[in-house]
Amino acid sequence: MPDVLITGLPRSGLTLASALIDSLPNSVSLNAPQVQGAQARKLQETIPFCKWLAGDFVWQRSRLLTQDPVNDYRAPDGSHILDNLKDPRLPRDENGEPQLTSFVRPGLKDDFILAMKHDALYTCILPTLVQMEHFNVIAIIRHPYDVIHSWQQAKGQQISEGKVSFARSYWSEASLLDPQREFDLLDRMVQVYELFLKRYYELRQSIHIIKYEDLVQSPELISNALKVSTPPPALSQIVNLPRIRQSELQEQLRDRFRKYGVFVGHYYPDILN
């Protein structure tokens, strides 16, 4: 069973997709492993980091099989969380920062599915990851109205400033959107959104692109991408995430996507009308 990478637009439902995979029999999905971000900052070179990443999957797989405790951002009972920012079950320190939880998963077979989730990090190095032919890649996208509204609310995260984590080292095209000068924040967010979609569209023959809106209606899209027969539980049993719509933001985004948008038209053409 190939290792699984979950990536996609930040705040588009990656944690939810990861939770769906984690709910499948003989499957584990880790939520943005902290060690991977630390190693990416240390290496700052794409090929060495991608090789290290493949080795990290081997290491984590061996620990899970031997039931050694694995650290992950999870609820105290070891269940997968549903939203990195809003899930009240995620332990946090006195400053509100998320805390890691150690867990074990008994009963795994040697061929269990191991997935890991990172939005910007995996997207930055996605062309090389695809070329390795080692990973089954799932990219989650969501309508720009909802995604960019969520970016605006994600205070303290780089994306709330229109910046892409790890871009300076791994994705030159995205790093150019981070100049040291005054800028229109909403303009930059629209351009970042476009760059993420461009990357997925250019690799669409090699990855599984799943819309959040479709995933809500058909959770079995996850099991289809993994080529497993057992579907995840109905989404209503996991979380209820209403779509966000604000008329003022809609008009502002529509104007900007008409200026910058190309790839959004392949997935959400209504934004350009």
What's this, in brief?
The chain has helices spanning 14-22, 34-43, 46-65, 120-124, 126-132, 144-153, 167-170, 172-175, 185-202, 212-217, 220-226, 247-260, 264-267; strands at residues 3-8, 27-31, 70-72, 101-103, 113-117, 135-141, 208-211.
Features:
single chain; 273 residues; alpha/beta; Rossmann fold; five-stranded parallel β-sheet; two-stranded antiparallel sheet; 13 helices; 7 strands; 43% helix; 12% strand; globular
Explained architecture:
The chain is an alpha/beta fold and 273 residues long. The protein has one domain (3-272): 3-Layer(aba) Sandwich (Rossmann fold). Helix content is 43%, strand content 12%. The strands form 2 sheets. The protein has a 5-stranded parallel β-sheet, with helices on both faces. Strands 3-4 form a two-stranded antiparallel sheet. Helix 2 runs antiparallel to helix 3. It is globular and about 55 Å long. The N and C termini lie far apart (42 Å). The model has no long low-confidence stretch (mean pLDDT 91).
Secondary-structure topology with pairs:
Blueprint: E1 3-8, H1 14-22, E2 27-31, H2 34-43, H3 46-65, E3 70-72, E4 101-103, E5 113-117, H4 120-124, H5 126-132, E6 135-141, H6 144-153, H7 167-170, H8 172-175, H9 185-202, E7 208-211, H10 212-217, H11 220-226, H12 247-260, H13 264-267
Helix pairs in contact: 2-3, 9-12
